[in-house]
Amino acid sequence: MTATVTITFVIGHAIIMYLVKYRARYGRWFVSSTVGFIPALKHGAFSSHFRNNVERTDDEYRGEPTEVALQRIADEADVEPTGERLRETQFSSERKRMTVLVDDGAVTAYMKGAPEVVLDRCNTIRKDGETHELTDDERQEILDQTESFAGDALRVLGFASKAIDDPSAEPDQIEDEMVFLGLQGMLDPPREGVEAAIDDCQSAGVRTVLATGDNLTTAEAVGEQVGLDPDGAVTGSDIDDQSDDQFTSTVEDIDVFARVTPDHKVRLLNALQDNGHTVVMTGDGVNDAPALTQADVGVAMGERGTDVARQASDMILRDDNFATIRDAIREGRGIFENVRKFVNYLVSTNTGEVLVVFLGVLLGSLLFPAQFSGTSQALILTPILILWINLVADTLPALALGADPHADGLMDQPPRPPDEGVINTRVLVSILTIATLLAVTGLGLFFYALDTTGSLLRAQSLLFTFIVVVELIRIQVIRSRYDQPLRSNRWLVGAIGVSLLVHITVLYTPLHDVFQVVPLTLVEWGLIAAGFVVFLLLNVVVSASNNRLFESRT
Description:
By secondary structure, this protein is of the alpha/beta class. The strands form three sheets. Strands 2, 5, 6, 7, 8, 9, 10 and 11 form an eight-stranded mixed sheet that branches. Strand 5 and strand 6 form a beta hairpin. The longest helix is centred in the middle third of the chain and has 46 residues. The N and C termini lie close together (about 10 Å). About 45% of the residues are buried.
C-alpha cells in the first residue's frame, strides 16, 4: 500500500515538485573570446528594459528575477537603453525565447532565451565589432560554453539581434536569420537551508522532485547542490518519447526533470498520482496554473507569484522558501499528534467514567442489594461529582495539551496512511483498555471501602478522588509515548496543579457538603495510592502488549 501526504496534516508519502524559478539576485556575464561583451550586455539590457518588468528606486530593484539580473548588470556597466518599444513577442515555455522591437533611430529586434533555441535562429555572429557568418565550429564552441556554465549551476541565456525593415512582419519572420551576440550565466545559489530542508523531508518520507525549464546540465548541478540525485535526469523531450506506462514507471526513480513545459508538468503530476502519491506542486507563473489546479495541494509563491498562480493554488507560500514547506509539515504533524493526545485523553477517561457508573450499579445491585435496591441515592457517582470531574479534572489539562511542544523526531517518522483518522486502531485499543482498567481498579476501591466502612458516602468520596488523580496522571502516561517530560509543558503543569488544589479544596473545606463528599483520611489516601499503583502496572503491561501487537503489523 502506498500512503499519501497533505501539506498540513501529513498522511503518507508525498512528492513535492519544486518548480525552480531562480531568484537571480546576481547577474554575471560569461562570454568566450568569440563573443563581444559590450554588445551582448547592451542588447541584454535592451531586451530587459523594454519589457518594462523592472522598477528601480535608488539601489532597490523590483520585478521578474531574470529581468532584474539583466538590469542590474547593465546598470553596473553604465549601459542605459533608449528608444521606443514597438511590440513584443512574449516568452513561453514552448518557445523558450522572447523578442522586443525597439525604435532607437532604426527598428531593431532584440531576442533572449534558451541558448540552443536562440542559436538555432541565428545565421551570423558579431565578433570583434564585425558581423560574419556563424560557422559550425563557432556554434559548437557556444554550445560547449553553455554546457560549461550550466555545469557550474548557472542559468544561461543567449542573446541575438537583427535590424528590421518591416515591424509588422510575423514573429517567426522577425526571429529568423538573427545575429548572435553572447551568453549570460546567472549565478543564484539555493537559499540557505534548502538542502537541510530537503534532507528533513526525505527523512519524513516526503520525496522532493525538481522540475525546471532550464537545461539539463544546470538542472543536474542545482539538484546536486540541494541534495537531490541527478543520476538519470531527463528532459522534456525524453518525456515526449515515452508512453504513459513507461513514464509512470520512470518517475519513481528520477528526481530531476529539465526543459519541461506546462504540459510536461501536468503529465509528470498525473504519473505521480497514478502511482498512488499525493502531489504538492509549487509554482509562480501563469503557465504553472494547470499543474497547480490539478495537484492535490497547489502552492503558489507569495513574493513573485502571479495573480493567476495564486488563484489556481490551494495555499500561498508567503516567503517563497522551500524550508517553510518543511516547517509546515513539521507543524502539521505536531498539531495532529496534539489533537490525537487530546482525543485519546478525553475519550478514554470519559469512557472509563461511563463504565464505572454502568458496571458499578450492576455489580452493586448484586453485591450490596441493601444499599442499591429501591433507593435513588444508591449511585456510584452523583451527577454533581461527574460534572465536577468533567469540568475541572478533564477540561483544564486537556486544554493545556493544545500548547504541548512538538515531540522530537516528528520528521523521522514514516507518514501515516491516507485513510487513517485521529482515532486509529491503536488509539481505539488504548482507549478501551485504559477505560476498562480505570473501571476495574476504581470499582475495586469503591466496593472495598463500601464493604469495610458501610458508608456509601465515604466510598463515593474515595472513588471520586481516585478518578481525579488517575485522570490527571493519565495525561502524562499518554505523553510519555512521545518521550515528553512533564516539565516540557508549563501550562500542563499549571493545569494539573490547579485541578489538584481545587479538588483538595472541595474535600477539606465546607464545600464538601455541597458536593456531598467527606474528607479522606491518610489510610484512604494510601488506598488510593495502592489502587493507582495497580492501575499503572496494568497500564504498563497493556501498553507493552499493544506496542508488540502494532509494531508487528508494520
